[in-house]
Amino acid sequence: RCAGRVPASITCSAEPMAARVGVCAVALLLLASSIAFAAAEKTSTTDPDDLSKVQKLTFENFDKIVTASLLPWIINIRPGKSKEAKELAESLEGLARVGTIDTKHEKDLLKFLDFQEAGDDVSVWRAYIFGKTGEDKKFSDHDTSAEAKAAVLKSVPKDLVTEIAGESALQPFLQSALANARVPVVMFTTKKGVPELVLKSAMWTSEHYALAVFPNADEQAQKNFHISRVPTLVMIMPVIDEKSGKISFSPIEYQREHFGGLQFLTIIKFLATARAELTQAGRWPKFPKRPDPADKQGQQQQQKSTPPPVEVPPEPIFEVTAATPSACSDSMLGLCVLLLLDNSPLNKEAKEDQLKLLEKVQYSPAQKGRPLHFMWVDAMCHKTFAEALDVSLESLPAVVAFAPKKKKQAHMIGAFSQTSVSTFISQVLAGQVPLAEYKSFPNVSKDDDCEKYYKDQTSVVDEEFDLSDIIGKPEERTVEERAADEDAQKRAAAAAAAIEAAEKEEKMRIVREELERLNKKKKSSSKSSDKKKTDDSDKKKKTDDSDKKKADDSKKKAEGDKKKDKAKAKTEL
């Protein structure tokens, strides 16, 4: 089927990719048949061959090539040419564009930029940050080119290029790229870290592409993407069904025969040419446009005309083992939802029910489109793993959610049900659940041999004993032995009756003592009350006597005063 329709340089395979990527082999054939790469193809974007050149900026071209560009710029404002600017452009090679403004001839541009210093000895390095255009394109002025370079590099986001730690991190990258209307591109490498050529490529193509690096990919991953060698670059082209809105992916590997070795300039040409050819052939994905928030009419039209959102099938629930050290790596987006359960043979049915419940949560409408990674671990076998998360075996099944980018986690509290798990995930994503920091996602020990562990557990079987094996069968016992047994039973019954009677007597004694204590307390309380009444009566009597004495003394004093007055009057007369 490929004969006569696909160029010999295009690798064509009818073998489908892994289910989690959801690639349709037919889409690969149709897409590849429409691409005829040409290394010399020129596009409407800035020519990468001009990277080492210093751009002379004028009033006529400034807005077009600086203000409208997402790339960072370092501009030397000074009279005449700038030798240092040329050296800076050669050293940067794509990390930033370099230009000059001649203060002697560009008076109108300097006025437009509100630049006041225009002396003959002026030399200012103006740095425009990455990722902004128009009025949002901010700048800062510096005395040296080194300071301007540092300011520009600081403005480049650290997560501009995603580092994929394993196949489980691939799905969130694809979802993020599609959500931002970008075509995913993955660089397969043999070393960790983001190569500078990939970072520069991401800066130059961020408007249309989302770049990632996949270090040390295993053979299965390379086979899934039809990779012929490593390192290499693969463009994962999304093919959107306009009717259903569903999506499939087709890998297009970088063609060394057309573009040469993997270098910054050749990668830029490959991506620019691919987009030009795919657009011309009508194969470039039509992502839904995001309307301006201020344009209400545009929003209404967008809601009417926008096709259903792109759907990426969620990745299967997988088991966390020693072979999956990157199950929830720091580079993964969204949440890792971990179910800790008992995988012992005796709990087989319950374990299957729990995984089915988790799968229902995964495919529920509430979790649709969310970057979630569902996984489970045998906490009964991997006890150190459970202990690292402070999960006791008595609390199984348990659910823990991890936000790997933030290095935070949360434990679900409550019964294990579809509603509670789904609600818990929604609350974690909405920030309604307190999160605790963690250093790293725990690893399963390679020394844990679950098969041997459960085999040892089931080998210890309780033996069933028959009482007749110990005391003999009834027909084998003599008359004397049976009589002795009856006598022993009677003695045991008598002893039991004596113990029961003693216990009753003890209970009665305790009751009597308690009644006696209460009676004493009552009598004591009565005596205290009588004594108090008597004391109060004596006290009142003393008070009355004292009052009477005071009255008598007052009367005597009054009579004495009266006699003195009479005697005084008599003397005066």
Report on this model:
With 573 residues, the protein is an alpha/beta fold. Helices cover 42% and strands 14% of the residues. The chain has 17 helices and 16 strands. Strands 11-13-12-14-15-16 form a 6-stranded mixed β-sheet, with helices on one face. It has a 5-stranded mixed β-sheet with strand order 1-3-2-4-5, with helices on one face. The protein has a 5-stranded mixed β-sheet with strand order 6-8-7-9-10. The radius of gyration is 45 Å and the shape is flat. The N terminus is likely disordered.
- Spatial order of the strands forming the largest sheet: 11-13-12-14-15-16
Amino-to-carboxy terminus distance: 163 Å
Based on secondary structure, the structural category is alpha/beta
Strand content: 5-15%
Q: What Rg do the Cα atoms give?
A: 45 Å
Low-confidence segments, given as residue ranges, are 1-46, 290-294, 302-311, 461-465
- Please give the number of β-strands: 16
- Count of helical stretches: 17
Integer average pLDDT:
77
The biggest sheet, with number of strands, parallel, antiparallel or mixed sense and barrel status, is: 6 strands, mixed
Q: In percent, how helical is the residue content?
A: 40-55%
Q: What coarse outline follows from CA principal-axis ratios?
A: flat
